[in-house]
Amino acid sequence: MTSLQVWTYVIVGFTFLIYIGVAVWSRAGSTKEFYVAGGGVHPVLNGMATAADWMSAASFLSMAGLISFMGFDGSQYLLGWTGGYVLLALLLAPYLRKFGKFTVPDFIGDRYYSQTARVVAVICALFVSFTYVVGQMKGVGVAFSRFLDVSFGQGVIIGVCIVFFYAVLGGMKGITYTQVVQFCVLIFAFTVPAIFISLQMVNHPIPQIGMGGELADGTSLLDKINQVSIDLGFNQYTSGNKPRIDLFCVTAALMLGTAGLPHVIVRFFTVPKVKDARISAGWALLFIAILYTTAPAVAVFARTNLIETVDNQPYDQVPPWFKSWETTGLLGFEDKNGDGLIQYYNDQNATFVNEVATPRGWKGNELKIDRDIIVMANPEIANLPDWVIALVVAGGLAAALSTAAGLLLVISTSISHDLLKKWLRPNISEKNELRSARIAIAAAVIIAGYAGYRPPDYVAAIVAFAFGLAASSFFPAIILGIFDKRMNMQGAVTGMIVGLVSTAAYIIYFKFGGGVGHPERYLWDISPEGIGTIGMLLNLTVALVVSRLTPPPPVSVQDLVENIRIPKGSGTATAH
Q1: Phi-psi region of 206 (alpha: psi -120 to 50; beta: other; left: phi over 0)
Q2: Which CATH architecture has domain 3-307+375-565?
């Protein structure tokens, strides 16, 4: 067993023992503890748990990988997710917390005084949460497959077993305190390697500043990565290439989808008061900012190191990390021209191929890289100590497992609380409701594990689909439910159905149907990752039009909306 494997077993094993210990210590004994941790979590701890819930495998593993390959265009993920959290914290969370319900379908069912609205919201929640959790399972498989020397599929199975244990046992109470620990692990694991590499490359301890620093030869790091990208036929790293409309739509879909994510919204029900919901949102934003401001630096460091390490190098002299990742199937080399050298370049750039590649006898790009491995492989590429590499593994697993647990809880509560308790079996006992929730989690984690084994795209792309679905279904219903007293059941339900169906159909067509590989067929150049913005506008328009053509909601519901928006004790100002 290598030194790296020993460190990995020690650090990952130690963190998992802590997670399981915390889950056992804080296991749920009632439905309120299972759904909202008893409503007594301290705002700072809830901020940490929210940050861990929010910073999934997409944030930890995939976002920096996407930015490292996409350059400027990758900023859509950074801007969309960060802006979305601000939108959620300011516009939605306090009002939903004041409403006092366990789940988003609970809010929609009561606000729109309809079991139909509740069922549609449950379907939306299941659709969004399941899509999202598939991405987490892929992240778990990536981490385990490399560092436990198992196949990708075996890595997914191991992750399924672990999530199954502490999510089924602890419910929201166990998950909350486990996520506090997981936040500490993932943020430490993400920033420590970044600091090491920043010192190594530009001699600056702060990665965010080091990204714009100078290398030992006096060359700007960003200037170098720009030039290297151009030399290999890629676009300049710091300039955009995507159509502006698509960049805008993807950013907006991620932002609006954030505000409709059920597993994040439910976190604000775990604190004692509405004021605490606002405070915990602020703390969470601070904790999230640590990772999100570090990710672009990690992307630049990783991209530069990767190209310098492997491009035009003899395959029989590649470093050990290259061969190790090859065994996972997530990194591959095909010697197309038989010269024994690794030629890595953009063979989709016709001009570059004609002017550079063909004259040199290159037959096509020979390096296949799964973008989701960049963060995990980065410390190895930079020759960091084994304990740092093992720490990154633990962090990636913490990010994936913490979000997976939150999502699985949403799936289980949607089934046990919103479908069974609120609709099919209103007289179900608390004990049976709790049992149903745990059975639902068990079924969901097995199905999600299978889907994660055969994912349709990169982790961040899969997650982007979930955000698009949330934006097109939940966001208008929630925002109008809070700020438009005239919005009624007919408008909300019709809007959610139109938004969800149109967005899902577009994604399915271009990712699984006849549109695969045909970006020229995109509507107005908008990719599947960004179509949620159009779905949201359709939802909003349909909801407003239908609500104005049908009877207004009951006076009691309009009074409820007024009470949600106006602080308790406020009244009309009087002159003296």
Answers
A1: beta
A2: Up-down Bundle (1.20)
